[in-house]
Write a structure and sequence with these properties.
heterodimer, A: Rossmann fold, about 35% helix, globular, B: MetI-like fold, binds adenosine-5'-triphosphate, binds magnesium ion, ABC transporter permease subunit (chain B), transmembrane (chain B), MetI-like (chain B)
């Protein structure tokens, strides 16, 4: 199957005034129609930057310094700003982490939804209003007619996130990037939002990039997983492969922090018993180790890990890890 | 409605306090009107002075004078000007329109110009315009009003005689009504620009800071993620939020604007309340001065109530918004 969105070897740097520091170093991801890619990793590892780079919305001082982002055959990094605006909110949309602040406080829900419909689909305001109402029904907001004329402060966090989803889905995008869409919401609402996203995805064949800390959500939602660490993609593969047979020590560390998550063989792995934690922290920007970036925190690290860049090892078809310690033999076997 | 009633009640209480305080303050000031009149007459006998005191009620105890004054105000009688030999109310009503014209013109000029400068410099915080705004604000803020006024007079009325030096209308009068309107506007330019100059600085700095803040917020990122053009992001999403502190400032500054008007009217010989206040202070014309203070207090209060209403209009989170009834019959309750 052709990926709908393909990020290849993405490099992002931040200009600190003195020098340009690398934020993302060679991130590669693929999204397929109707599938969900889970992007996981600790705080500060570059998940949001990957999303914002794809949207063309990197903050000031951040810029893409290399790689390519191909959406349905079109290189977004080469596209003109006007073309990017045509795609944004239309073929490619994003749901942000903070529903409390992501909606404009002085505009009604109706305005914030219809705006994007009028802009991209050239609909009259009456038609746009109908579609907005339909969208609110689709995201299962109670009393959609009333909500339409409400202001954001009159809605709960969960409802606001539903409105955000309605906005993101209003133009039937090919790709939705959801950056921790449920982090700010309570657990029951989280489950509802995930179910909603999955239902809507089934109807529309949208590809979802689900950015999250929560491996439980990944197990439930994702078809494929990419694990980021310190601006690098350290492991990627199908959800069964990653959660069932994690190849990178970092992924195993992340999983040992989440109870009752291991699938298949890993569930019986006696070594991975109990709740673990990964010692140390993600190094700050510009202080990344030269060789393996995870080496200082890795229990398996030896001299070579501290001295040389690890290779990208295919451990199984479609499953690869950036590590000296994974054996490629498995793939051969 | 009860909100408005409450506001009105507190406004009346405040007015009463203004009257009492001003009355007592004037009693504390050295000099009394009779001695000024006598001075101008070139001296008078003790008998005559006592007779004049009795005539004006100045021989009575202060608290009685105050009570009499309050009682008269309630009937709309603001007393008789010692100096102008006219009822104070007539005097004030003659001068009020000129002041309102000046103050409102200056305010509108300052707000529009200042906000535009603020917006454009916030768009490019490191650009030439941004630095210009900062310097212009500092100069405008630091320069005394009368100095700005005199400089403008020297340049635009004396060296390049484009605008008239003083007054509000041509002494020879105007044949047609539009001639008169033009004449007044022509006279209005310099005083209004002078009065506006201080506030342009305030508003440009304020709206620059507020727009910078708003442009960095999450909902602006959402607006960009919708694919809106920069123009629509700034004017459709950011401006209304950025204006909230500006509106607050208008309410707070209205009183100062009157204080500025006293100076500007004096420099430009503008026949308004400000110059009347200046003259009545010089002449110890207490009834006139008290009347002016009373009316300025009313104007400031009206301005505050208007700002409050505008505030509720701009920011839906403030004040009781009337919910539109858009729900068709049969919708969920
Ligand atoms: N506005 C900013 N200015 C400077 N550095 C930033 C800024 N935003 C993020 N960073 C840095 O960029 C790196 C990547 O951050 P990013 O926001 O992508 O992390 P993340 O994986 O999304 O983390 P989280 O899970 O906390 O959202 C981090 O090292 C972070 O410190
Ligand atoms: Mg993030």
């Amino acid at each position: 199957m052709q990926p709908i969105l393909e990020i290849k070897n993405l490099q992002v740097g931040v200009d600190t005034g003195k020098s340009v520091q690398s934020v993302l170093d060679g991130v590669s991801l693929q999204l397929f129609p109707g599938k969900t890619l889970g992007v996981v990793g600790e705080s500060g590892c570059g998940k949001s930057m990957t999303a914002l780079a794809t949207m063309g919305l990197l903050p000031d001082r951040f810029s893409v310094t290399g790689g390519s982002i191909i959406l349905a055959g079109e290189d977004l990094l080469a596209a003109k700003p006007s073309r990017l605006r045509q795609l944004r909110g239309n073929a490619l949309s994003m749901i942000f982490q903070e529903p409390m602040t992501a909606l404009n406080p002085v505009l009604t829900v109706e305005r914030q939804i219809t705006e994007v419909i009028e802009l991209h689909q050239k609909k009259s305001s009456a038609e746009a209003r109908e579609i907005a109402l339909e969208m609110l029904r689709a995201v299962q907001i109670p009393g959609p007619e009333e909500r339409l004329i409400a202001y954001p402060h009159e809605l709960s966090g969960g409802m606001r996130q539903r409105v955000m989803i309605a906005i993101a889905l209003a133009c039937r995008p090919k790709v939705i990037i959801a950056d921790e869409p449920t982090t700010a919401l309570d657990v029951t609402v989280q489950a509802q939002i995930f179910r909603l996203l999955r239902d809507l995805q089934m109807q529309t064949e949208t590809a979802i990039m689900l950015i999250t800390h929560d491996l439980g959500a990944v197990a439930e939602m994702a078809d494929d997983v990419a694990v980021l660490y310190a601006g690098k993609c350290v492991e990627s593969g199908t959800v069964e492969a990653i959660l069932g047979a994690p190849a990178h020590p970092y992924t195993r560390g992340l999983m040992s922090c989440t109870p009752r998550l291991r699938l298949g063989a890993a569930a019986n792995d006696p070594q991975a018993e109990g709740l673990g934690e990964i010692p140390g922290m993600v190094p700050p920007l510009g202080r990344f180790p030269k060789a393996c970036r995870f080496a200082p925190r890795c229990a398996l690290a030896d001299a070579r890990c501290h001295a040389e860049q690890p290779p990208l090892v295919d451990t199984a078809p479609g499953h690869s890890a950036l590590c000296w310690k994974t054996s490629p033999e498995k793939a051969v076997a | 409605m009860p909100r408005l009633v409450k506001k009105l009640a507190s406004a009346i209480g405040l007015l009463l306090a203004v009257v009492v305080l001003n009355f007592l303050l004037i009693q504390l000031a050295p000099g009394d009107p009779v001695s000024v009149i006598v001075g101008e007459m070139g001296g008078a006998s003790e008998d005559l002075i006592a007779q004049m005191r009795a005539e004006y009620g100045l021989d009575k105890p202060v608290w009685l004078q105050l009570l009499i004054y309050i009682g008269k105000i309630c009937t709309g009688d603001f007393g008789f000007s010692y100096y102008f030999k006219q009822p104070v109310l007539d005097l004030i009503l003659q001068r009020l329109p000129a002041t309102i014209l000046l103050v409102i013109t200056a305010l509108i000029t300052a707000v529009i110009l200042g906000t535009l400068m603020g917006i454009f410099s916030a768009r490019k915080p490191k650009g030439v315009l941004s630095h210009f705004v900062t310097i212009f604000s500092l100069v405008g803020y630091a320069a005394p009003v009368f100095w700005t006024g005199l400089m403008l007079l020297i340049v635009f009325a004396s060296i390049f005689p484009i605008f008239p030096v003083s007054g509000m209308m041509n002494v020879r009068g105007n044949a047609t009504w539009y001639g008169a309107v033009f004449d007044v506007l022509h006279h209005l330019v310099l005083p209004a620009v002078t009065l506006a100059s201080i506030y342009v600085a305030t508003y440009s700095r304020l709206s620059r800071a507020s727009m910078l803040d708003v442009l960095g917020s999450d909902y602006i990122r959402t607006a960009r993620a919708k694919g809106l053009s920069e123009r629509r992001v700034v004017f459709g999403h950011a401006l209304r939020n950025g204006l909230i502190p500006v509106v607050t400032m208008i309410g707070l500054q209205f009183g100062q604007l009157f204080a500025g008007a006293v100076l500007v009217e004096t420099v430009f010989n503008w026949p308004g309340l400000g110059r009347l206040a200046y003259e009545s202070i010089l002449r110890r014309d207490y009834p006139t001065l008290l009347g002016i203070l009373f009316f300025s207090a009313i104007l400031v209060m009206v301005a505050n109530i208007l700002t409050d209403l505008a505030y509720g209009k701009i920011d839906p989170r403030i004040g009781g918004r009337r919910r539109k009834k858009a729900r068709p019959a049969g919708a969920r309750p």
